[in-house]
Automatic annotation (TrEMBL):
Record organism: Streptomyces phaeofaciens
UniProt-listed InterPro entries: DUF3000
The protein's name in its UniProt record: DUF3000 domain-containing protein
Length: 208
């Protein structure tokens, strides 16, 4: 794919107007300052038009959680989506041992996703996804490392389209960042706990 077409896929001037509006709303979203976000190359085979963001919840030099949000658009519509737009996400975070041992953790994490969307007053359809809990235990030369657990949320949903055919992607991004912050263990954002994010924004040092 040549450079011009790639730009169109990411919201260039030749992309459909609803998709361009949806991408512009993502770029202008107001997010809490603990979340660092930047655009990344979008997948090319999932839809005719796509735009992707990566984000991380950072405390100093420690990364508490990270994720990716992809906006897909098919002007012809998609039977499985029941719409022309789809949001797809992956979120990962390390878990405290007490939380990792909770048998209801997958259900709780899924409720965080739906609750974040509902708290923003968003309407959506066809939600689907998985919540995976994984544990790592170290042996031999790595035996001194403590056991570690990680949660991974993979999900997708269809945002309802508004006037002009574009969904309120800025609000969906804010809800997604609420979920990312909650998975990272941050307290709920206060009224003034937000800042305008100008894309692209480069991440600082990370620690894994």
């Amino acid at each position: 794919m040549d450079e011009a077409n790639e730009g169109d896929r990411d919201g260039g001037r030749s992309a459909p107007l609803p998709f361009r509006a949806a991408v512009d709303a993502l770029r202008a979203a107001r997010l809490r300052p603990q979340i660092e976000i930047e655009p990344v190359p979008a997948p090319k085979k999932l839809a005719p038009f796509a735009y992707a963001l990566e984000a991380a919840v950072v405390d100093g030099e420690q990364e508490l959680a990270d994720g990716r949000l992809v906006l897909l658009h098919d002007p012809a519509g998609h039977d499985a989506w029941h719409g022309t737009f789809r949001l797809v996400t992956l979120i990962r975070a390390e878990l405290e041992p007490e939380m990792a041992a909770d048998p209801l953790l997958p259900e709780v994490c899924w409720s965080w996703l739906t609750g974040a969307l509902q708290a923003r007053g968003l309407t959506y359809g066809e939600p689907s996804g998985t919540v995976t809990r994984a544990s790592s235990h170290y042996f031999g030369g790595l035996a001194e490392r403590p056991a570690a657990s990680q949660i991974e949320i993979r999900a997708s949903w269809t945002p309802r389209e508004g006037l002009g055919g574009a969904p309120d992607t800025g609000a969906h991004l804010a809800a997604w960042c609420d979920l990312l912050a909650q998975v990272a263990g941050l307290p709920p954002a206060g009224p003034g706990d937000a800042s305008v994010v100008t894309l692209p924004q480069r991440r600082g040092p990370q620690s894994r």
